[in-house]
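= Protein in question =
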Amino acid sequence: MIYHEKRVRLPKPKYIVFYNGTKNQPDSMELRLSDCFENTDNDAPCLECTATMLNINYGHNQELMKHCRRLEEYSIFVQCVREYIQSEPSVEDALEKAIDTCINQDVLADFLKKHRAEVTNMILTTYDKDLYEKTLKEDAREEGREEGLMEGRALKYLLKSKRYNDLERATEDIEYQKKLLKEFGIE
């Protein structure tokens, strides 16, 4: 069909991303590939891809969970693992306890009974608590740096325009800092 002149019609793709991370996220949001591009200088990207992110953490997207029991059970299982990781001495112990609890409560029971070793191995080889905690700290540090740079730019604007009273207030009032960031278009 490569020699035909007629355009080949394709079905419209719909990309879905399931989110089960630990950050507080909305039930649903649109993700754009272009948000990851560097140095866009407000130019429209030559390529764009959008995906709908659905938060599948326990307690989110309840309508979806009502229609897909397996996904709801997965959500419960992940929550159970997270809770036991907080209270058990090792990830291995937490995982064993979570699997036992879920089987006893008929949550993914058929799957966990059949694939217990694979689930355990997969989680233990992909979950690195030290790396996870280190990554969280690095992300928080980077977020703090970005906030500090934004605040510094706002303070610089205040100094340049000799708004000393606003400068003094901004050093003590976080809400006022946010207002100034908006005023100067720094977000």
User: Anything to note?
Assistant: The CA atoms of residues 84 and 94 lie 5 Å apart. The helical segments are 62-67, 69-87, 91-104, 109-126, 129-160, 164-170, 174-183. The chain has a mean pLDDT of 86.
